[in-house]
Amino acid sequence: MYLVTGASGHLGQAVINHLLTTYKVPANKIIVTTRDVAKLSALAAKGVQVRDANFDDEAHLTKAFAGATRLLLISTSSMEPGQRIKQHVNAVRAAEKAGVAHVVYTSMPNATKSAVLFAPDHAGTEKALADSKLTGWTVLRNNWYFENLFFSIPQALASGTQYSAAAQGKTAYIARDDEARAAAAVLSSGKAEKAIYTLSGGQQYTVDEVAKLVSAATGKPLNVVHVPVEGLVQGMLGAGLPEGMARMFASFDAATAQGDLSGTPADYKTLTGAEPQSFAAWVKANASALSIPAAH
Ligand SMILES: NC(=O)c1ccc[n+]([C@@H]2O[C@H](COP(=O)([O-])OP(=O)(O)OC[C@H]3O[C@@H](n4cnc5c(N)ncnc54)[C@H](OP(=O)(O)O)[C@@H]3O)[C@@H](O)[C@H]2O)c1
Predict the structure, then answer these.
(1) Are 150 and 290 in contact (CB under 8 A)?
(2) Which of 177, 238, 250, 267 has fewest C-beta within 10 Å?
(3) Please, what CATH class does the domain formed by 2-143+174-199+263-276 belong to?
(4) Residue of 98, 183, 169 whose CA lies nearest to 134
């Protein structure tokens, strides 16, 4: 039995889709968990077992994980740093107690040394897996999704200016759907291992290169203004962002500048046997969505 947590989320939905369609896993071999089972009634109708589970409650999680052999632990929201590591450790302990053989976890690139302020949540979860009695685990260090651009680009295009502290650092963006495909591949493979992979797209881009692609696709000017990390923080504070959030977002740029988010598609190809989707083609295809502020 394969179990997927966070199955109501963007990544979780895509993983289930790949399990069912790409890897032909029968619906009755899949268990999904959520804090709100009503959200997953469409999956229940297909024959997937839907179970209630909250990462804040280890005993409850242990019951929810019963009967699962391979489990995909999708990281919870980064907007609760500190809280998240407790939730993930609860999930690792619950998996041990429930007799799960193998846990697959969605981490981030260079988790143990990244400048991203929530990296310790991922590094701590990786350590919990390494220290656990589980017979196997796979860490998927997921690089930044293409879809993250929906949060930054519309606003930058509206003013024509993007402030960046990423300098000439590069990001190997990858489609969220490709991350989902790789997770489904590992989960359904049955492979016993204790391994770490980094999932990155086929090409890496500086902020200036991304701005050029966006400008060409949308026909709108986008000028990148390079500032120091503290300057970026102060700018966000001036725009009314709470300090914790401003420092978190600025830490993404600090991480990019020091190369934490660069990468190659080698691991993605090893796990899926496929080429990752093209970032440049995605930017072109999403030009209108990138031009208007929208919830994604
Ligand atoms: N690499 C990247 O660029 C990138 C970008 C964004 C996010 N991420 C990470 O990847 C994860 C998945 O992304 P996503 O886009 O699918 O996020 P999402 O749509 O926000 O989904 C997050 C899922 O986490 C579950 N969850 C949250 N708190 C929980 C708790 N206390 N107990 C049990 N389940 C809980 C939610 O399930 P229910 O509400 O159904 O319980 C939800 O399905 C994120 O949470 C984040 O850690 C990575």
Answers:
(1) yes
(2) 238
(3) alpha beta
(4) 98
Query: Which among 150, 139, 144 has a CA at the least distance from the CA of 169?
Result: 144
What residues in the chain have per-residue pLDDT under 50? 296
CB atoms within 10 A of CB 154: 17
Ligand 1 midpoint to CA 108 (Å): 13
Residues touching ligand 1 (Cβ under 6 Å) are: 6, 8-12, 34-36, 39, 53-56, 74-78, 87, 106, 142, 144-145, 148
Judge whether 257 and 170 are in contact, CB under 8 Å: no
- Report how far residue 121's alpha carbon sits from residue 93's, in angstroms, rounded to the nearest whole number: 16
What are the residue ranges of helices labelled H in 147-223? 149-159, 176-189, 207-218
Angle between helices 229-238 and 243-257 (to 10 degrees): 150
Classify 79 as helix, strand or coil.
coil
